[in-house]
Amino acid sequence: MFEVAIPAFISYNSCRNRHCPKCQASAARRWLEARQTDLLPVDYYHVVFTLPAPISAIAYYNKAVIYRLLFNAAAETLDTIAADPQHLGARIGATLVLHTWGSALTHHPHVHGIVPGGGLSLDGTRWVACKPGFFLPVRVLSRLFRRRFLEALSQTHHAGQLQFFGEYAALVDTAAFADWLAPLRNCEWVVYAKRPFAGPAAVLAYLSRYTHRVAISNRRLVAFDAHGVTFRWKDYRAKGRTRHKIMTLSTDEFMRRFLMHVLPSSFHRIRHYGLLANAGRKKKLALVRKLLHATPDTSPQHDETSAGTATQPTFVCPDCGAAMIIVDILVRESSIRAPPRHCGAL
Questions:
Q1: What backbone torsions phi and psi does residue 329 show, to the nearest 5 degrees?
Q2: d(CA 65, CA 183)
Q3: Residue 121 to residues 124, 131, 135, 319, Cα–Cα distance (Å)
Q4: I want to staple 102 with a disulfide (CB 3.0 to 4.6 A). Which of 106, 131, 156, 316 is the partner?
Q5: d(CA 231, CA 192)
Q6: Sign of the C-alpha dihedral computed for residues 271, 256, 216 and 320 taken in this order
Q7: Please, which residues have CB within 8 angstroms of residue 246's CB and are 6 or more apart in sequence?
Q8: Cβ proximity of 11 and 162 under 8 Å
Q9: With 0-12 CB in 10 A as exposed, 13-18 as middle and 19+ as buried, what is 24?
Q10: Please, are residues 180 and 54 in contact by the beta-carbon 8 Å criterion?
């Protein structure tokens, strides 16, 4: 008989901070389980709305305001174009997820939208499907998104809700702000849509990577020494193998870039709109399934044959890479404190 020594790995009490790279796996898994029953048997599309660099610069000082405008403008754009009879002529649903970083931890606010390929007709009597492989025209989405966002930004400035510092301090003046916005009304804003996902299981796999992602994960970290912090990043302007690079930043600069992406307190980075909005979601989805002659899939996803469809385990063995099973959870107890000293005690 052989005895096998199994090493014990301890996972200490989680800080449960939503910006912690180590504490998001469990939260993502619970969120995905709750969202699984919302999936529809239709194609899903991935749409991205990105703010231009000048807006990103002032967003750093006005996170809650600018990010809220980004969510609202993206949702209104999707809803308006989809409802137009010249395009889809239907009421759609969307899940928008905010990301504020680039691969090098730069400030790059954008929202990822996961959208079913179709919607309810305006009279609510039938399901209107998209054309195969095509959701909505990107150029039209980009133009309307630019106009809606700049209109809302101007109104926000007029209401005195924006703050400016340093080189942007002069933008407090209304005329200076209008001149600063003028070039942004003519440049192209980046909005793009990817091809549809390969079924609902692929949507879940994608969401598991994006909904609870933070600015940088532990697996991207390479080294931490006297030279600073070294990590992997992807240069999207390069092609082929040259895309994947290594960057070393001083400790102070690394912390500065990471903390740029800490969201304001109570700010929701995942939001649902239209058919998927929390208000009336169950009722609307039940109507859609009735029209599609479908039933909700409440069974857990076990299909691991497709690449990327398997849910990542919460804990992985650092030696063999296998998934680890939680066998016991140690409840944190109050720390031992010394008895209070009596008055006059030496």
A1: -120, 120
A2: 21
A3: 5, 15, 15, 54
A4: 106
A5: 28
A6: negative
A7: 222, 230, 231, 232, 233
A8: no
A9: buried
A10: yes
Q: Are 111 and 99 in contact (CB under 8 A)?
A: yes
Instruction: State the alpha helices, DSSP H only, in the chain.
Output: 25-35, 53-59, 63-83, 138-158, 174-181, 200-210, 251-259, 281-292
* Residue 186, SS3 per DSSP: coil
Helix pair 25-35, 200-210: axis angle to 10 deg: 150
Q: Which of 331, 322, 330, 332 is nearest to 6 (CA)?
A: 322
Q: Which tokens go with 189?
A: 């804003």
Q: Under the phi-then-psi rule, with left for phi > 0, alpha for psi from -120 to 50, and beta for the rest, what region is 220?
A: alpha
What's the pLDDT tens digit per position in 14-53? 676 777 777 766 677 777 777 777 888 888 898 999 999 9
**Segment (H or E) for 245:** strand 244-249
Query: What pLDDT, in 10s, does the model give residues 79-94?
Result: 999 999 999 999 999 9
Give the tokens for residue 261: 């992406």
The model's pTM: 0.79
**Residues 6 or more apart from 143 whose CB is under 8 A from it?**
none
